[in-house]
Structure formats: C-alpha cells, structure tokens
Amino acid sequence: MKAASLRNRIAAVIAAICISIVLLLGVTLYEASERMEAALVDQLLTEELNFFIRHRQANPDHAPTPAPNVQYYAVRTPADATRVPAYARTLAPGRYEIDIGAGRGDRDVAVRQVGDTRFIVIYDIGPYEAREEAFRRLIGFSVPAMAILALILGYWAANRLTRQLTQLAQRVGGLPPDAPQARLQQDGQDIEVAALAEALDAYRLRMIEMVQREQEFTADTSHELRTPLTAIRTSCGLLAREPALSAGARERIRFIAQAVTHMTEHIEALLFLARGDELAERERVDLEHA
Fold first, then answer.
1. I need a surface site. Which of 2, 45, 60, 180 has the fewest CB within 10 A?
2. Residue 276: which region, alpha, beta or left (left: phi > 0; alpha: psi -120 to 50)?
C-alpha cells in the first residue's frame, strides 16, 4: 500500500482548517444578521407604533403619511376595520410576522390597544429579506471560492514546509558513501530538519566506522588464513618431490593439496563478498616452472 504524501496531508489539513473557519464565520455572520434584523424590526415597529399613537392623540383627524413600506391603521369602528388588510384585521394586541402569500413575502405587524382605539402598524420587510437573500447568496459563493483558495494556499504552504525535507532527501540520495567530511546539516535549516540532518550525519559516521573496522578485520583475517594455507601448499609441493615416497603417500599429498586449493578459493570468495568487491579474473601460475 502506497504511503500518503506528507505534502498532501499538510495541504489537506490547512485547507480543512481554513474551510472550517470560513464556514463557522459564515454561519456566525448569518445568525448575527438574523438576530440584528429581528431586533431592528422590533425596534422600528415599536418606534413607529409610538409615533403613530402620539400623532393620533395630537391630531385625531389626521393620520400620518404612510411610508413606502409602513402602513398605519387606527380602528375604532367596524368601518375602520374594513380598511385594514384581512390578515391583520382581527389580530389581538401583540407582535406578529405573517406570510401574506402569493409570493408577496412577509409582513411584520404590531397591534396595541389604547382606550377604545386599536392601533395597527404594518411593516413590509421585503427589502430586508432581499438583502438577506443577497447575503445568503454571497455566503454560498464565498464558501466554495474560499475552499478552492484554501486548497491552493494549503498546497503552497505545504511545499514551503516540506521543501527542506525534500532537499535533505535529495542530498542523502546523492551523498558518496566514503565521504565522511560531507555534512547534511547546514545553516538556515529549520530546527526539526537540522535535528534530523544531525542524526543522519551521526548515523552515517557510525556506518563509515563500522565499514572501516570490517575492512581492517577482513584484511587481518585474509592474512591470517592465507599464511597457514600457503605453508601447507608449499609443504605439499616439497613432499611431492621426494623420490622415496610411495604411491599411496603421493596420492594423500595430492588430496591435501587439492583440499588446500579448494579452501583457499572458498576463503577468497568469502573475503571478496565481505568487502563487496567483484571477483576479478585470476590466472593460475605454476611457481615450480616459472
């Protein structure tokens, strides 16, 4: 199973954090705007209703001039009630939000009874709803846009954060194994990257020391093993030249010489493998007739 890229994981984490913050901020702003709108409408209706009552008490025969989205009604008689829209005609004193249907939106209604007069203020919140819908569309557009921007910024930030690790890996891959003076730790590295580079430098030096000790051991072992085998081979050659030896003794000497030869070949192969060298082509030389 292929391991996940550290760069991609960092980018995903940064993007997820940014998107979460944007979503939280959008929801918070939307909720705050809803509460602010409700408080503003309540305050507006209360002020308009107080203004209407004061104006009516000061000018009983003149109603205030209606605003484009505010309507005033004072109901004392059944005839007055007929001028009130049907959805607000029978409302008891209080505060209401009514959907009047036919796609015309909502109306906020405030009703207050003062003596024998029922005062009604109807407020059309259509402009607020339009702004609310525009704000909702803005949030709906901003979240995907911020998600894309967060991914781009996250990937850019991940590249910046992992660049030194990538460079360190490249230097490790191209570092000669027999160059103890070359160091991976460099000035300007981040603390974590510098600690990793320092650990790799120490590990590489230990490996170089181990290889050197192995080479020294191999050289000493080669000398110690080849010296007695050479002595045995030489002795076999000298004994084979004795004229007084029987045929059986000569055969045993030949077997010993062959065994020494095989042992020498095995030792040389093992030593070459231990040093990591390739087996070179060798030529057999007859020292007796050289």
1. 2
2. left
Task: Determine phi and psi for 34, rounding to 5 degrees.
Answer: -60, -45
What distance in Å separates the CA atoms of residue 127 and residue 282, rounded to the nearest whole number?
100
Q: Domains of the chain: which residue ranges?
A: 6-148, 191-275
Query: Exposure string (b/e) for 271-285, b if CB count within 10 Å is 16 or more?
Result: beeeeeeeeeeeeee
3-state secondary structure 116-182: CEEEEEEEECHHHHHHHHHHHHHHHHHHHHHHHHHHHHHHHHHHHHHHHHHHHHHHHHCCCCCCCCC
CA distance 288 to 283: 15
pLDDT 10s digits, 176-193: 766 666 677 777 777 887
**Cα dihedral sign, 38-42-44-48:** positive
Strand order in the sheet with 70-75: 70-75, 117-124, 106-114, 94-99
Kindly state the tokens that stand for 144. 């995907």
Fold for 191-275, please state it. Answer: Helix Hairpins (1.10.287)
Burial zone of 194 (CB within 10 Å; 0-12 exposed, 13-18 middle, 19+ buried): middle
39 CA to centre of own chain: 42
| Nearest CA-CA partner of 122 in 133, 112, 132, 134 | 112
Name the phi and psi angles at 97, rounded to 5: -125, 115
Q: Which two tokens stand for residue 195?
A: 């600690």
**What is the spatial distance between Cα 290 and Cα 80, in angstroms, rounded to a whole number?**
142
The dihedrals phi and psi of 96, each to the nearest 5 degrees, come to -135, 150
Q: Are 30 and 136 in contact (CB under 8 A)?
A: yes
Q: What pTM was computed for the model?
A: 0.49
